[in-house]
Every structure is written in C-alpha cells, then in structure tokens.
Specification:
The complex is a heterodimer of chains A (250) and B (351). Chain A is of the alpha/beta class and 250 residues long. Chain A has helices at residues 40-48, 70-76, 93-105, 119-131, 147-160, 180-192, 205-211, 229-234, 236-249; strands at 2-11, 14-24, 29-33, 55-60, 63-64, 78-81, 165-169, 197-201, 214-219, 222-227. Chain A has two domains: 2-77 and 163-249, Rossmann fold (3-Layer(aba) Sandwich), CATH 3.40.50; 87-148 and 156-162, no CATH class. Chain A is built from nine helices and ten strands. In chain A, strand 7 (165-169), helix 6 and strand 8 (197-201) form a beta-alpha-beta unit. In chain A, helix 3 (93-105) packs across helix 4 (119-131), helix 3 (93-105) runs parallel beside helix 5 (147-160) and helix 4 packs across helix 5 (147-160). In chain B, strands 1-4 form a two-stranded antiparallel ribbon. Chain B has a two-stranded antiparallel sheet with strand order 2-3. The chains are: A alpha/beta (250), B mainly alpha (351). The A-B interface holds A 48, 50, 69-72, 74-75, 80, 82, 86-91, 95, 98-100, 102-103, 107-116, 118, 121, 157, 161 and B 4, 7-8, 199-200, 202-208, 210-211, 214-215, 217-226, 229, 232, 236. Chain A: Residues 2-245 form the ABC transporter domain. Chain A: Keywords: ATP-binding, Nucleotide-binding, Transport. Chain A: InterPro entries: AAA+_ATPase, ABC_AA/LPS_Transport, ABC_transporter-like_ATP-bd, BCA_ABC_TP_C, P-loop_NTPase. Chain A: One of its GO terms (molecular function) is ATP binding.
Chain lengths: 250, 351
C-alpha cells in the first residue's frame, strides 16, 4: 500500500502540492484529476522521488520512503511512466526495455560478461515489447519511433520494472485514437491481476470513468475531492474546479 | 571465438575491419618492417596512446563525462614507475611496486573526485577536473626532490629491457635485444587492455553507462544509482590511464611533465577520440594511430612537399615543415566537418 501524509512542496512561497494525505490500496486504480497546474505531476514527482518533499511523508508498504532517492524507490517497487516521453533516445527500442529488466536482475555491476549472453534479459524485454505491440520495432532506434510508439515504449519500460505501484502520467497524451485502446488494455490487464496499485493521471474523462475505482481531485495543490467515480464527477466542488470548464467542450 | 574476444562488438564495416587488422598486424611486425629507433618509438607510442584514448572514450563517449584530469592519471602511472625505478634501482620489483602504487593512487583520486563532484552538472565537473589536474601538474613540477621537477626523471630500465640485453643474434636483420622485448611488452599489454575495455563497454555494466550518457534522469528513474556507476567508470578509466602511463615509463626510460602531465596531451587524446568516433573503442584506436602518425611524420611529409614546390613562392612557404601544426588543425576541422560522428561512426553508417 502506498500512502502520503500531509505531503507538501513549496517553491518559494507557492505550495505546488499542499498537505495531500491519501492512501492507495492494492488492487485498485485511482485516477488523479484536476485542471492544468493543479499539482498532479508534482505530486507524482514527490511520490517517485524526483522532487524532495518540503514536509510530510510518503510510505510504501509501511516503510517511510520520504528521504530515499529515486533509484532506491524504484527498486522498492515504485514504477513510473513519464508524461513527456523520456527514453534513451539513441539506443534501440529493445535496449530501452532491456535496461529496465536488467535493474531487477541485479546484473548492472557485472563488468566482465557480454550483455548479449544474458538471453533471459533479452527474452523478457522482448515479451514486454510484444505486450505493447512493439516487438517488430525492437531494433529501431528509440528516437526514430513515431510519437505513439514512443508512448508505448514508455509503458513497456514501466512493465519491465515489474513494480508494485504503477504510476501513469497521461499515458495516452498525444496518441492517435486507434492507438489508445492498446494502452488502456494494458492498464486494465494490470488492474485485473488484483495485487498492484495503479495511479493514473489522465485528462480524458471517458478513460477515467471506465477504468477508475476511485477518483481523487487536486486543485491548486490541495486534495478537494475523493470518492467513487460517479460521486466525484457529479459533485459541485469538482464541477467548479475542473469539470465545469471541460464539460462545455468535452 | 572472435565474437567472444571482441565481446560481440564486431567492426560492422568492411573498411573498419580492414583498418583494424592492418593496425593489429602492422604494429605486431613494426620492428621488422620498419627497423630503426624512431619508427619503433612511434609504434610504441601508438600502442600507449591507443590505450590512453580508449580509456578516455570510456568516460567521454560511453558515459558522457567530460574530464580534463585524464592526463593526471596517465602521469600518476608514469611517475609511479619512474620514481620507484629511480629509488629502488632497475629491478622488476621496482616496476611492480611503482605500477601498483600508481594504480592505487589513481583509483583513490578518481573515487574522491567522483564521489565529491559527479553529482554536479557536466560543465562544473569538467572545471573541477581541470583545476585538480592543473594543481597536480604544478605539484609534480615543484616536488623536485621526488619527481625531478621540470626536467623529470631519467632512470635505468630493468636489464632485460635495455638495448644491451641480447637474447639471440638477429632475425630478419633485426637485433634481438631488450628494446625488442620492451616493445612487445608494451604491444601485448596494450592489446590486452583494449580487449578488457571492449569487454567492459559491452557488459551489462557498460550498457548502464550508455543509458546514463543518453538520459541520466531516466537511468535514475528506472533504478540505477548514476553517481555510483559514473564513479566506477571514472575509476576504471583512471586505472587504465595509469597503466598506460606505466607502459610509457617502461618504454622511454625518462618521465617528465611534458610527456605525461601536460595539457597538450589532454588535447591530443580529446582529438583522438573525437576524430576516431566517440562511443566506440575502435574509434579511439583509429584516432590514436592517425594522430600519433601525423605528429611524427607530417613534418617529414611537408618537407617532401616543400622540396617539390621549391620554386613556387607562396606555396613553398605554406608547405614548410614548420607549418605542420597548421595543417594538422586544418585536417582536424575537415574531419569534424565531414565526419561529425567520427571516422568509425561514418564507416558504420555506410554499411
């Protein structure tokens, strides 16, 4: 279980995330919604360790991880896919995923064996690529992939980390309509396994509605609503903060 | 077999493969093909600089670390052997002590610099290494009791490596003496070091280094502690540079700041790596061969051109042997302009 207690970060006087307390249970998918600048990605950064919290705590399975660096949190089971595609651009698609598989294997400090002799890492990486239907692009250089494929690769890297907590930051942003289902199917499949915690930041309300067990609304860094999708989406405070504006043109 | 020796990093270009075989064989038979003190000296220097450039490429090309302290480690290795040979006499025990001492000092220094400063941004790290290396060079020239100051040290090599040592008559007209043994010591050690580096960059560890070069932020995010990896890479590069320095000291029987610690050498190895192709061990090999050759023979070549153009007023002056640095500069600019990915990058592109 992942939990944040009074989690806060201040940039100067501005609190980008302001005293957010929230617990995320195993086997549930929680969507975090809110208008642009509400602090969703910053909240993610605090959880996965890209930013240090000003105050408050983050605990994973009862262990306080607030002061741990990002790599350590990843190895403890926090996996994160990034909003802006964040790959190893000049390495092959396969190598991008293989590097993520390699973290778990603990072979990173192996100096004297040949990478190519570790077939099992390559096979696992290929399996993850197949899961996002990128297997046929395995040898392509990541930077040369079209945007949609780069998003899929981002998700494949997250799958390869085999985390307990999956954090998706707008996984379908910028994807063409026909590519979106691939990603949603993957998220649904992870949820199906029942033992993973999933956090999703997403703007497409139909996606949020259909996938979420629960919706948390952030507004100006504060948690303003929390509950079942049907309740939250129809609550006044959410309409005012967020949905009211998008409902007009959504 | 070949795949295993080259750690799956095949040349992937016919011309590159040809060039590498030519270098490997050429250096192996150099003493017989080009007898004479100067050519043997050039061949040995090529061997040493191949190792030095390759170890620098581990930092620059593979890990994305810009360090100006690489010659410092080269100098530490050279002075280690030079000082111990001066103090302990010309024995193999002195060579062993000097090599190990240099190696240890290099690794300790690289670790300290790494842990303290590899967290900062590339440009600041480069500045820090520049400062440390300059301080070290000044220290080396001022501790003249130990290092011989600006003049450096002249010392006797172990008996088996001297010209006076003979282990047979002649072979193909070449005297079988200690210099020949010394050359093959340098050659074999360099070849072994290159193959070790090739293995390291093609290992799971090496793959993490390239990930760090590509995107350190993401490498952290998927669970690699980049500071630790960068520091280990710095240590390996420093240790290899120190060994290259030890080989140079064992070859030349004199060690001074100009030949080991100077900033000119730092620029030379930077050029070797960039011309050859960053991020490929073979690039360092090609770059080192080309640059050492140019430094030693460009003047001779220009002398020939100068003679041929003796009557022509402006051109004769332009091709005067003293202008060799100008032409080296022109060649470098052309190289970077036409092969931004280096010679090896270009050759592999064409496939």
């Amino acid at each position: 279980m992942l939990e944040t207690k009074d989690l806060t970060i201040r940039f100067g006087g501005h609190a980008a995330v302001d005293g957010v307390s929230c617990a995320f249970e195993k086997g549930t998918l929680t969507s975090i919604v809110g208008p642009n600048g509400a602090g969703k990605t910053t909240y993610f950064n605090l959880i996965s360790g890209q930013l240090p919290a000003t105050s408050g705590r983050v605990t994973l399975n009862g262990e306080d991880i607030t002061s741990l660096a990002a790599p350590r949190r990843t190895r403890l089971g926090l996996g994160r896919a990034f909003q802006l595609t964040n790959l190893f651009p000049n390495l092959s698609t396969l190598e991008n995923v293989r590097l993520a598989v390699q973290v778990k294997s603990g072979k990173g400090y192996d100096l004297f064996s040949r990478t190519l002799t570790h077939r099992e890492l390559i096979d696992q990486a290929m399996a993850h690529l197949a899961a996002v239907s990128l297997a046929d692009r395995a040898q392509a250089i990541a930077a040369t992939l079209p945007h949609g494929d780069q998003r899929k690769l981002e998700v494949a890297i997250l799958l390869a980390l085999e985390p307990d907590v999956f954090m998706f930051d707008e996984p379908t942003a910028g994807m063409s309509i026909d590519e979106v289902p691939t990603i949603l199917d993957i998220i649904a499949a992870i949820k199906q396994r029942g033992d993973k915690t999933i956090l999703l930041v997403e703007h497409k309300m139909d996606v949020v509605r259909s996938l979420s067990d629960r919706i948390v609304v952030l507004h100006q860094g504060k948690l303003v609503a929390d509950g079942k999708p049907a309740e939250v989406i129809n609550s006044d405070i959410v309409r005012e903060a967020y949905l009211g504006s998008t409902a007009d043109h959504g | 077999m070949l795949r295993s020796i080259l750690s799956d990093d095949l040349p992937r270009s016919r011309w590159l493969a040809l060039a590498l075989v030519a270098i490997l064989v050429g250096l192996a038979v150099a003493p017989f093909l080009f007898p004479g003190a100067k050519s043997l000296n050039v061949a040995a220097k090529i061997c040493v600089f191949i190792v030095l450039a390759a170890s620098f490429d581990l930092l620059l090309g593979y890990t994305g670390i810009v360090s100006f302290a690489h010659t410092m480690f080269f100098g530490i290795g050279a002075y280690g052997v030079a000082i111990s040979l001066t103090r302990m006499g010309a024995g193999w025990d002195a060579v062993a002590v000097g090599t190990v001492a240099g190696l240890l000092l290099a690794i300790v220094l690289a670790t300290v610099i790494g842990l303290f400063s590899l967290r900062v941004r590339t440009i600041f790290f480069a500045m820090i290494t520049l400062a440390v290396a300059s301080a070290f060079a000044i220290l080396a020239s001022q501790l003249s009791d130990l290092t011989g100051g600006e003049d450096g040290l002249n010392y006797r090599l172990p008996a088996a490596l001297r010209a006076s040592f003979s282990f047979g008559d002649t072979l193909f007209g070449v005297r079988l003496n200690g210099r020949l043994l010394d050359y093959y010591l340098v050659y074999t050690a360099s070849l072994a070091l290159i193959l070790v580096l090739l293995r390291i960059v093609n290992s799971p560890f090496g793959s993490v280094l390239m990930a760090i070069r590509e995107n350190p932020f993401r490498a952290e995010a998927i669970g690699y502690r980049t500071v630790v990896y960068r520091t280990i890479a710095s240590c390996i590069a420093a240790a290899t540079a120190a060994l290259a320095g030890a080989l140079l000291a064992l070859w030349s029987s004199q060690t001074n700041p100009d030949t080991t610690l100077s900033f000119d050498i730092m620029v030379d190895i930077l050029l070797m790596v960039v011309i050859g192709g960053m991020g490929t061990m073979y690039g360092a090999v090609i770059g080192a061969v080309l640059l050492v050759f140019a430094q030693n023979y460009l003047q001779d070549l220009l002398a020939v051109a100068n003679k041929a153009l003796l009557g022509v007023p402006l051109l004769a002056n332009l091709f005067h042997p003293d202008r060799w640095l100008l032409w080296l500069g022109v060649a470098f600019i052309l190289c970077v302009y036409f092969f931004p990915a280096g010679i090896v990058g270009r050759l592999r592109q064409k496939r």
